[in-house]
Specification:
Blueprint: H1 2-7, H2 11-55, H3 61-85, H4 89-103, H5 115-130
């Protein structure tokens, strides 16, 4: 700690700023995940409405194809949910995602595919709010 104090004039302040930066990054990431889950929820509701209309023979083939695509996304999310329950989930989920990319299989639902763009947009909006 003495070397650290020699290098920095305010080591406690530097530590506090670092902790705050980490917490802000975690909050931002959680907000991005919340947006993706909200989008998935809306798409699932639309899927259910389409299936209900299909049972009454009021839905066309395009709507049914879109609903089937969303149903596949729902099954992808349920598949990852199984890994979330298993022990060592922080290790197994990234491993499954990486193996899926190597094999060429899309493991994540479609609403989670553009997470990097959402993070960039969230950072831009948070910077604009503070300015």
């Amino acid at each position: 700690m003495s070397i650290y104090q020699l290098l920095h004039k305010a080591p406690i302040r530097v530590i506090r700023i670092g902790r705050r930066r980490i917490w802000l990054r975690i909050k931002l990431d959680m907000l991005v995940v919340k947006q993706a889950l909200a989008q998935e929820k809306q798409e699932t509701k639309a899927m259910l409405v389409t299936y209900k209309r299909y049972t009454c023979k009021q839905a066309n083939k395009d709507e049914l194809a879109e609903a089937n695509k969303q149903f596949a996304d729902l099954l992808k999310g349920l598949g990852l949910g199984v890994f979330a329950v298993l022990p060592f989930a922080p290790i197994t989920i990234p491993l499954v995602l990486k193996l899926g990319k190597i094999v060429g299989v899309d493991v994540l639902p479609s609403s989670f595919n553009n997470m990097s763009e959402r993070k960039a947009n969230a950072r831009r909006s948070s910077i604009n709010k503070t300015s």
